[in-house]
Structure formats: C-alpha cells, structure tokens
Amino acid sequence: MKDLKFILGPCACESVTQMEEVIRTISVPNVPANTLIRASLYKPRSSYGTFEGLQSEGASMLNNLLGEEKISQIATEIFDARSLQICVDYGIKNFWIGARTTTNPFSVREIASELALLDKNKIKSIGIKNPTSRDLALWYGAYQRICQSGHKPYLIFRGITTGNSAPFRNEADWDFVFQMKEKINDQSVQFILDPSHIAGDRKYVLPLTIEGLRTGLFDGIMVETHPNPEIALSDAGQQLYLDKLPEFVKTVNKHWLEIQRNSSDCNFDTERQAIVELDNEFYESLQKYLNTRRILSDKIGESKAAHSKP
Ligand code: PEP
Ligand code: MN
C-alpha cells in the first residue's frame, strides 16, 4: 500500500505567529512526518490591490524561524527565476509553479533555465499546477520545459476555471487529469490533488478530496489551512481551520486505506499473475511433450528406413 502524500499549510505565509501555529499543528503524530508545509510567499493575484505575499521578507522570516534543517519542509510558489533564486538563497527547497504562471511558456522556460543552473541539492521538488484554462498543451509544455532542466516535476490539479462551476470555484474535470497522465505515460510522475482551489469553500474540501482520490489518479493532496481563516489575507473561505486539520488528515487517510484496499481487491493482480505462471508451465510441458514425441517418431522413422520396412 502506498502512503498518501500531504502538502498542508496556509494559502499565504502571513506572519511568524501564523507559521509557528501551522508548524506546531503539522508536527502532531496524526500528520505524516514527511508532510510538506505549504507557505506561499509570492501570490500572483487576479485582483488588483490585494495581498501579493511577504516575498523576500517572508523567505528571510521563515529562514530565521526554522533554520537550515527544518526549512527543507517548506514548499512555496514561484513565478519567475528571481523568486526562485531568492527562495533558494534562504534555504527553501520545494517549489511549485502556480496556475497563472503555467499559462506563460516564457515564464516557465525562464524558471527551467534557472533550475538547470542551480546546484541539484538545492532543489528537492518542483510541482506544476495545471493552467487556469482547459489547455492540456500548456500543462504538458510546462512539464516538458521543466524536464529539460534535469528535474522530474510532479503535477498539481487545481481544477479548471470556467466561470461556470458552481457550487465549486473551479471545475473538477478528472478526465483532464487522465488525459495528462496518458500524454506523460510515465507511472513515476506523481499527481497531487488540490481540492482547496477546486472547492473555493471549506465545506467542499473533504468530499472533493474523497471523490478525487477515488478516481485513482492521485498520489497526494495539497490542502490550505489557516489558524484563523476569517482574517486570512487570501482565500479565506476555502482554508480549513487549523485546529481541525489533524482530524481531517486522519479521515482522509482512513478513506485512502479503504480506496487502496478496494482497488487491490478489484485488480486481481495476484490471480492474473498465477494464471500467467500456469500458462507458462502448460506451454513448457507441451513443448517437452512435442519434443519427446518428435524424437521418438524420428527414431521409428530412422529404424524403418534402416531395415527398409515400408
Ligand atoms: C494558490 O495556490 O494559493 C493559488 C493561487 O492557486 P492557483 O495557482 O491554483 O490559482
Ligand atoms: Mn490559495
């Protein structure tokens, strides 16, 4: 059975106290130890005049708060080479390219070029969100560009912005993810579900998580959580209450186990393998029988010929 990957944390890194609370909650036994802590420092917002992140000051703050070792648990969004350089300089190692950035091939190319120049041990993971529109070529193009940098990216599905996805913020088009998987055709590439941005409302986050995981398309989830979502500076309505997070993780893991158990019950891998082995044994003994029969017939033939018996 595979463990589900978790990337959990606020939409945006806002303050030391907020991040201290998040880190404390994510360090409880219910939450797997390899969980990445989401903390966006750069927020390319659609609406003008809204909070655009703490940027380099936030990166410095996280570095002071966590130190070199613990900061490697942080994952943050980047949108160009400079934002990547700044975060790397402060010891951050996990990144993802946001949906708005994926829509711009030149930005992705710039990030890929920077990734190629950076020391490999400075980068632990790089994710790519699907673009806001239903454009598979853009997502796939971004994937190929990042692969060119020498890193194998993972992919994050945040739904598709159609303006027509009520009651959700974005459309949960699972077939779009399926198509991307087919195009990539590499089982080792991980897919992460972002139910927070599909939902747009915290009450839909758990049901969307379960529905998404049931498709069998995903290896993990990225979920937004905040100690006090009412005063969050971005995406207030969709962030889970931090104090409910351990329970959420427990529930999701319970479903994940059940989903995995059902799929291993249903795929009959063991039975299929046994049939293959049985077939092989049968063909081997058939081959043996035919060979022995041929040798005996040849012997009779040769003996008849030697004694000129018709
Ligand atoms: C986010 O991760 O907070 C975000 C802005 O998401 P997206 O890029 O999917 O819109
Ligand atoms: Mn967000």
Could you characterize what this model shows?
The chain has 310 residues and is of the alpha/beta class. The chain contains eleven helices and nine strands. It has an eight-stranded parallel barrel, surrounded by four helices. Helix 7 links the parallel strand 6 and strand 7. Helix 5 runs parallel beside helix 6 and helix 9 packs parallel to helix 10. It is elongated. Bound molecules: phosphoenolpyruvate (PEP) and manganese (II) ion (MN). The site of manganese (II) ion (MN) has 4 residues, from loops.
Note the gap between the termini.
68 Å
Rg: 27 Å
| SSE pattern | EHEHEHEHHEHEHEHHEEHH
Class derived from helix and strand content = alpha/beta
Mean pLDDT across all amino acids: 96
Taken from the alpha-carbon principal axes, the silhouette is: elongated
| Main sheet characteristics | 8 strands, parallel, barrel
Total E-strand runs:
9
What proportion of the residues form beta strands (DSSP E)? 5-15%
Helix fraction, binned, reads 40-55%
As laid out across the biggest beta sheet, the strand order is: 1-2-3-4-5-6-7-8
Which descriptors would you attach to this protein?
single chain; 310 residues; alpha/beta; eight-stranded parallel β-barrel; 11 helices; 9 strands; 49% helix; binds phosphoenolpyruvate; binds manganese (II) ion
How would you summarize this macromolecular structure in one to three sentences?
The protein has about 300 residues and is an alpha/beta fold. It is built from eleven helices and nine strands. The structure holds phosphoenolpyruvate and manganese (II) ion (MN).
